[in-house]
Please model this.
Amino acid sequence: MSEPRLTSLSHGGGCGCKIAPGVLSQILKDTAKLPMPPELLVGIETADDAAVYRLNDEQALVATTDFFMPIVDDPYDFGRIAATNAISDVYAMGGKPILALALVGMPVNVLSTETIGRILAGGESICREAGIPVAGGHTIDSVEPIYGLVALGLVHPLRVKRNADARAGDVLVLGKPLGVGVLSAALKKEQLDAAGYARMIETTTRLNTPGPELAALQGVHAVTDVTGFGLAGHALEIARGANLAVAVDWAAVPLLEGVRELAAQGCITGASGRNWAGYGEQVELPAPFGDIDRALLTDPQTSGGLLVSCTPGCVDEVLSVFRRHGFAHAAAIGRVAAGAPSLTVC
Model:
């Protein structure tokens, strides 16, 4: 008997599985009261991409984990996407990955060992590309298929790039185009053609390798990656962390080919609406700004691009780094200014 589609086994896929931002803030509201050692350079206080622990004057350990349910039906591609997404958080802190641990939850009575093996093989292929081993992990029998990694890396303590260190006058640069959530919704509805699927796989399996090189630039102040909370949500994290206002030039934001049309056909994730419900009151939209644009602004990105806050004089160098690593769609999309934490879309 043929196995079911992977996406049919999960109630959500990719970073669209994230708990809604408003709910998450309530869950975590008391965790900031926990004692933190002085060696912990980055903890949970600003909802950053990874924890960073100072080992000595030259090295700090970057530690993160990310896992989710299938966003695609091909098991090998699912593994590749999940691994790329997990390792991205190390790059977002300016770190170089050193090893990974696999996190595997599978419905073993539904999926064959061959299919599960292909998921793991996909993840391992991305780890090889990143130059790191899968050094262990943990497996459970789960109702829904789940795969991801614990990813560890190293960074110089002076080159750690938090999401909270943007400065007034900075320019925001986005490394990848938006629209992964729309493509995933179209795939689940069987409305995504082969070319659209190829674009989805190309962007979600592209490692955010510019991270360490960007972190070495003096004009780069803050870095994060755009994932499940969408561009608006992660831009707001930068605004809150720095206690500044962020403005995004919507016309400058790169979009994956075809996503606007697919969104207009109803290929929008439920996570997009949950994102807006969680933080929409802090976002000022221009008039007119239609429902499709709002859905794209809040579209959950799986393995999305780096969002960099840098001085105006550093923009060309930042874009050059992205181009050298193959990120052809990287673009300057907004600015950081004095003001109460908020996001204005122009």
